[in-house]
Specification:
The chain has about 250 residues and is an alpha+beta fold. It folds into 3 domains: about 1-55 and about 195-205, no CATH class; about 60-180, DNA methylase specificity domains (Adenine-n6-DNA-methyltransferase TaqI, Chain A, domain 2); about 215-245, no CATH class. About 40% of the residues lie in helices and about 20% in strands. It has a 5-stranded mixed beta sheet, with no helix packed on it. A 4-stranded antiparallel beta sheet has the order 4-12-9-10. It has a two-stranded antiparallel ribbon with strand order 1-2. Helix 8 packs antiparallel against helix 9 (about 240-245). The longest helix is centred in the C-terminal third of the chain and has 41 residues, at about 190-230. It is globular, with a radius of gyration of 21 Å.
Length: about 250
């Protein structure tokens, strides 16, 4: 849903085209429609909505390089590696834990964007559902202003952007992309009210998605850990309730 809406608003410019034809943009309220112009102009990237401008991804987003030493990471900290990230799906519902990590990692916060820079053609991009640490083969990206969250997520998770970075990645067997190159990606920047309106919609979708992730992960954790502990005698039945409360 987020990708389809992003394409309609910021790639195909459907609301602008609708207004040019004297129509109300389909599925859009009057207040939101009023945020869009009703004509185009020609700039560096071609035909774009009047009043919008051309900039780069780095103008609206940043790479949050929070390096952490393994000895300073709590064992029960959530850990996300590339193998935990699905392809072409922004929902991240799998992760491990930091117990046993031996090298530096990057810290991330809930709601930040994780982009797999190793073999970018795998298209591993998602929104962190919780705080944690990740492999250094993952870039932690965030908008410079939360009003631009949806807009930034729409770009970095798009097929066009992933293909752009794959074509420009370095290395033959293990190609990697870099934030320095990603930041130069040219984009059409809408007005701030349009970006904010889109961001609110996407944030609502992401929050709903996250709300379904945690119960599923909690159930999976209980399924995988509780029975073995009871069978081995490591945990007594009378203490199972307390164990469940700690997991939840």
């Amino acid at each position: 849903m987020a990708r389809a809406l992003f394409k309609a608003w910021f790639v195909d410019f459907e609301p602008v085209r609708s207004k040019m034809e004297g129509r109300t943009p389909e599925g859009m309220g009057a207040a939101t429609a009023a945020l869009f112009p009703d004509k185009f102009e020609v700039l560096e990237l071609g035909l774009i909505p009047k009043g919008w401008r051309v900039c780069t991804l780095g103008d609206e987003a940043e790479h949050l390089r929070r390096s952490v030493q393994p000895e300073s990471i709590e064992p029960d900290t959530a850990y996300i590696a590339l193998e935990h990230m699905p392809r072409r799906h922004i929902a991240l519902s799998d992760w491990g834990f930091a117990d046993g990590l031996e090298s530096n990692k990057f810290a991330f916060n809930k709601g930040e964007i994780l982009f797999g820079k190793l073999r970018p053609y795998f298209h591993k991009v998602g929104v962190a559902p919780l705080d944690g640490v990740c492999s250094t083969d993952i870039l932690v990206i965030a908008p410079k202003s939360q009003k631009w969250f949806g807009f930034v997520l729409g770009h970095v998770s798009s097929v066009d952007f992933v293909e752009y970075r794959n074509a420009g990645s370095s290395g033959t067997k293990m190609p990697r992309t870099r934030w320095a190159d990603m930041a130069h990606y040219a984009i059409t920047r809408p007005s701030e009210p349009v970006a904010a309106a889109f961001g609110e919609i996407v944030r609502s979708l992401v929050d709903s998605m996250s709300a379904t992730i945690h119960p599923s992960c909690t159930f999976a954790t209980l399924r995988d850990t509780l029975p073995p502990k009871l069978i081995s005698g490591e945990l007594r039945a009378k203490d199972a309730g307390k164990f469940v409360e700690e997991i939840v």
